[in-house]
């Protein structure tokens, strides 16, 4: 509870709303004690006095009644009626919802059908019908507004109740012989109260508006008694000649409802756990760049060269170093594998190339990404967009979520082409069919009209590849493209990529956590751990004779087919959290042969030409059998 | 698709019947008897009894309901005693005016609300987002009737841009430009609240969608950010915006009551308020049933639009 209040207080707008509402409520409460004129005494001689005139701070209305006094008394009435209506609706709706949700079955069905019927009415119309039956009057208006809101509460509360009705603690209460009524009161009701509070905080403003509305129509409070709505209703006839009589009550309604809405939003945000982590911020068109250190000199050659890349995630006051200085390069026709556990920074490295890391929270804080020698980090959006898909294309994991679910695959392919050159509709379509054929999708002419959900996983990934090929790119970055697929489909996709590389001279950066895949496809491989490269070299060398203890243990994790004699060895422990990286080697805590100096100072990536390793005590036996 | 529409139409029948039952029950709650209300408190007991018999009010409740329902199905909604004309004629004429007002307001709030939500989400935490968020808060907090009155004061009385009230000029031609100048203020006043609600929802729906993987795919393809926002993200967000449009249509349709009163618009809402004040029960019954039925049918249109928009929904 106190945590909730703290969260609420931190929301400055909610605080402002709460304070204003408190002031208004306090004013309404002390109204009978204030030295005000009688709100109902008419003095026709003093009609329509202007605001700030003697004896009437806000002026007088068409019957010469003091507006300030009427305003405060009216506010008192409006607040009372609005909150009473909200309370009645909440209690009534909660009762209905709890009963329906708790008993379920036919009771639930019957009640909810009735609720659906009520919800089929246009909101205010139902209130009008109820007032029509009961007759005009403030109390009847209260009942009408409450009744109209009951279905909303009933539906919400029922949903929550269904969720708890079969939980263990309710079953336990049942088994212990508690009566149904007691179970509902002691086990269910306390758990639905937060939902009731949220629902009330979002609807009480409405209810004040609606009761004021009915009074405005002359169906609520009857003269001489006046709430804010009927004050406004009576003032309407003098709107043009004496607008102040309308403005005074109207503004008051606005202030009340606005402060309630501000407070209500705060309550909802504080009780909605999704918003706490700040998860609802949208990624921008390109990753933010905030390079503090000087841009490194170009050293590696290749069509795409990553140098000293650093990408971080800034969440609140935490900094996660997802990529902590990575150097990589790939040549035309070459396939470079990046391998590592999940969270090792391999995907973030790949996405940083074209500024596709979600930002916020991602920030590229250092290094360079050179495409044909030109640095792309911090390049204007226009240049990035021009290169994306045309020169550097991506293939993503799980094409069910990476293809747009609501567009036909053909249209998505055509769009990929049209993003970079203008083609006619017919041309685009022909090209799309051709692309699908080039990735060996059967019946491409009819498949272009399919939606992603109508294709199998393997076919969808082929579409993903076809899309990457749409503009004959020079570099393809494939981020775990086969992880979601079964083994036979995976083999087909790998063969397809390999052919494309040989036929078109594509440079491929292939990200995976699977050594088998690396062995099949990649010329060179880089092993990543905790945001850095720990070993790099030609695939056969690295797989055959790993030098970094981490690589060795990673290879030992791969099961062997047939009569493998060695034990399958999981790596003990977990990778370090990238917001609290230890000094020295990040793998030290999990390494079997760790030495004291492993934990001190920066350990460089050292090597001779092709091979490099970031370890003070690299392995020297060929293909060491672990723990045998 | 035709099959789906038919199925939805059939499923609307119990809802429509439920609506008539609810309206009938509410009216049956009326304390005292309508005959006294019609004839006034000075009527002789004999006259009251005769009128009750004429209205069929001496029969059991269930029988009364079926007679009423049967008559309505044949297009006979009864006769309004205060206007002395068939209820259906009056409702149809008034509903026409309401439809012009509410329909315009609905188009306004849908277009402006969605656009504001999209702009707001695309510039999250930017100045446009802050301005829109504030405007939305103001919009959903202001009573539409108060807003309408202030608009009259500013735009009709002071600036003289628009007529003060009514649907047609008292003298002069009833042409489209005359209608538009009368329609502008009430339609805007009616649309404001719903625009705010739709903008709010569109913003959060867009934020949700913009975090999806397929948005990253679109960007990776090199699609221009405008296309990413308005084509990719909005298309997906519409799936959750459309159902809310259906709900808001109900608010606009019934919220028209206030606006019709403020602007002297000859619509069904004003008719209902007058009927309630004169206790013209048959007119209230007929008007409520008719408008609610139209709303149910409109929601079927919304559902159909929803399935057209989302190919994943099996029809």
UniProtKB/TrEMBL annotation, chain A:
Pfam families: ABC_tran, BPD_transp_1, oligo_HPY, OppC_N. The chain crosses the membrane at residues 77-103. InterPro entries: AAA+_ATPase, ABC_Ni/Peptide_Import, ABC_transporter-like_ATP-bd, ABC_transporter-like_CS, MetI-like, MetI-like_sf, Oligopep_ABC_C, OppC_N. One of its GO terms (cellular component) is plasma membrane. It is found in: Cell inner membrane; Cell membrane. Its main location: membrane. SMART domains: AAA (SM00382). It comes from the Bacteria. GO terms for molecular function: ATP binding; ATP hydrolysis activity. Residues 304-555 form the ABC transporter domain. It is a peripheral membrane protein; Multi-pass membrane protein. Keywords: ATP-binding, Cell membrane, Membrane, Nucleotide-binding, Transmembrane, Transmembrane helix, Transport. Residues 75-264 form the ABC transmembrane type-1 domain. GO terms for biological process: peptide transport; transmembrane transport. PROSITE patterns: ABC_TM1 (PS50928), ABC_TRANSPORTER_1 (PS00211), ABC_TRANSPORTER_2 (PS50893). NCBIfam families: oligo_HPY. Belongs to the binding-protein-dependent transport system permease family. This is ABC transporter permease subunit. It comes from Halovulum marinum.
TrEMBL record, chain B:
One of its GO terms (cellular component) is plasma membrane. One of its GO terms (molecular function) is dipeptide transmembrane transporter activity. The chain crosses the membrane at residues 12-30, 95-119, 131-156, 176-201, 236-261, 281-302. Residues 95-301 form the ABC transmembrane type-1 domain. Keywords: Cell membrane, Membrane, Transmembrane, Transmembrane helix, Transport. It is found in: Cell membrane. The keyword Transport applies. Coiled coil: none annotated. Belongs to the binding-protein-dependent transport system permease family. This is ABC transporter permease subunit.
């Amino acid at each position: 509870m106190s945590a909730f209040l703290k969260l609420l207080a931190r929301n400055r707008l909610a605080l402002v709303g709460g304070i204003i509402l408190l002031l208004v409520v306090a004013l309404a409460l002390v109204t009978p004690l204030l030295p005000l004129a009688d709100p109902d005494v008419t003095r026709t001689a003093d009609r329509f006095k202007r605001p700030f005139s003697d004896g009437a701070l806000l002026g007088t209305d068409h019957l010469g009644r003091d507006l300030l006094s009427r305003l405060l008394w009216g506010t008192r009435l409006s607040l009372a009626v609005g909150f009473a209506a909200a309370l009645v609706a909440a209690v009534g709706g909660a009762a209905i919802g709890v009963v329906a949700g708790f008993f379920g079955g036919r009771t639930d069905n019957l009640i909810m059908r009735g609720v659906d019927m009520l919800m089929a009415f246009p909101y205010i119309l139902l209130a009008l019908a109820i007032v029509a039956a009961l007759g005009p009057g403030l109390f009847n208006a209260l009942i009408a507004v409450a009744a109209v809101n009951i279905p909303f509460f009933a539906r919400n509360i029922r949903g929550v109740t269904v969720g708890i009705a079969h939980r263990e603690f309710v079953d336990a209460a049942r088994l212990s012989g508690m009566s149904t009524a007691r179970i509902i009161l002691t086990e269910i009701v306390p758990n639905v109260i937060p939902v009731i509070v949220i629902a009330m905080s979002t609807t009480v403003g409405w209810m004040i508006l609606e009761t004021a509305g009915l009074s405005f129509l002359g169906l609520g409070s009857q003269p001489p008694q006046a709430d804010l709505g009927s004050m406004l209703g009576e003032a309407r006839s003098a709107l043009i000649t004496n607008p102040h009589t309308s403005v005074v009550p109207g503004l008051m309604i606005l202030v009340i409802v606005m402060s309630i809405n501000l407070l209500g939003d705060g309550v909802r945000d504080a009780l909605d756990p999704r918003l706490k982590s700040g998860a609802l911020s949208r990624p921008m068109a390109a990753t933010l760049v905030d390079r503090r250190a000087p841009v490194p000199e170009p050293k590696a050659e290749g069509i795409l060269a990553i140098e000293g890349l650093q990408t971080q995630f800034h969440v609140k006051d935490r900094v996660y170093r997802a990529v902590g200085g990575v150097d990589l390069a790939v040549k035309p026709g070459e396939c470079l594998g990046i391998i590592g556990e999940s969270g090792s920074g391999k995907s973030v490295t790949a996405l940083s190339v074209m500024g596709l890391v979600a930002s916020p929270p991602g920030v590229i804080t250092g290094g360079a990404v050179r495409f044909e020698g030109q640095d792309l980090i911090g390049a204007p959006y226009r240049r990035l967009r021009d290169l994306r898909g045309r020169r550097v294309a991506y293939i993503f994991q799980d094409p069910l979520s990476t293809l747009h679910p609501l567009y036909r695959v053909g249209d998505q392919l055509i769009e990929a082409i049209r993003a970079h050159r203008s083609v006619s509709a017919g041309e685009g379509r022909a090209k799309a069919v051709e692309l699908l054929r080039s990735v060996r999708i059967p019946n491409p002419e009819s498949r272009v009209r399919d939606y992603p959900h109508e294709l199998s996983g393997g076919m969808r990934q082929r579409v993903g590849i076809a899309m990457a090929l749409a503009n004959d790119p020079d570099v393809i970055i494939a981020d775990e493209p086969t992880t979601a697929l079964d083994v036979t489909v995976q083999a087909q996709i790998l063969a397809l990529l390999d052919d494309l590389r040989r036929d078109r001279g594509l440079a491929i950066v292939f990200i995976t956590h699977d050594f088998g895949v690396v062995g099949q496809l990649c010329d060179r491989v880089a092993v990543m751990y905790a945001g850095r490269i720990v070993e790099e070299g030609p695939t056969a060398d690295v797989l055959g004779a790993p030098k970094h203890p981490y690589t060795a243990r990673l290879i030992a994790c791969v099961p062997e087919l047939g009569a493998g004699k060695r034990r399958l060895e999981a790596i003990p422990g977990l990778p370090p959290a990238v917001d609290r990286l230890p000094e020295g080697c990040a793998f030290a805590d999990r390494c079997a042969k760790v030495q004291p100096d492993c934990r001190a100072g920066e350990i460089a990536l050292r090597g001779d030409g092709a091979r490099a390793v970031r370890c003070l005590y690299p392995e020297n036996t060929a293909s060491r059998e672990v723990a045998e | 698709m035709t099959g789906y529409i038919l199925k939805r139409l059939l499923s609307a029948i119990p809802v429509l019947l439920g609506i008539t039952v609810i309206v009938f029950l509410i009216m049956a709650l009326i304390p005292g008897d309508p005959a006294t209300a019609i004839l006034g408190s000075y009527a002789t007991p004999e006259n009251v009894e005769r009128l009750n018999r004429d209205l069929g009010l001496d029969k059991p409740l269930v029988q009364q309901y079926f007679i009423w329902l049967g008559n309505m199905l044949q297009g006979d909604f009864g006769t309004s005693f205060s206007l002395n004309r068939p209820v259906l004629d009056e409702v149809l004429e008034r509903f026409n005016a309401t439809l012009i007002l509410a329909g315009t307001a609905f188009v306004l709030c849908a277009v402006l609300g969605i656009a504001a939500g999209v702009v707001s989400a695309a510039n999250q935490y930017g100045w446009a987002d802050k301005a829109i968020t504030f405007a939305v808060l103001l919009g959903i907090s202001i009573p539409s009737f108060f807003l309408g009155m202030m608009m009259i004061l500013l735009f009709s009385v002071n600036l003289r841009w628009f007529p003060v009230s009514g649907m047609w000029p008292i003298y002069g031609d009833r042409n489209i430009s005359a209608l538009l100048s009368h329609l502008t203020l009430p339609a805007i006043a009616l649309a404001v609240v719903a625009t705010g609600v739709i903008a709010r929802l569109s913003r959060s729906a867009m934020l949700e969608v913009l975090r999806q993987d397929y948005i990253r795919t679109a960007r990776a393809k090199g699609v221009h950010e405008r296309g990413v926002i308005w084509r990719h993200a909005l298309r997906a967000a519409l799936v959750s915006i459309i159902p809310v449009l259906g709900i808001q249509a109900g608010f606009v349709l019934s919220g028209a009551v206030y606006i019709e009163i403020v602007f002297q618009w000859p619509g069904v809402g004003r008719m209902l308020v007058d009927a309630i004040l004169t206790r013209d029960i048959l007119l209230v019954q007929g008007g409520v049933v008719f408008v609610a039925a139209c709303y149910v049918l409109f929601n079927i249109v919304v559902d159909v639009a929803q399935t057209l928009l989302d190919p994943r929904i099996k029809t």
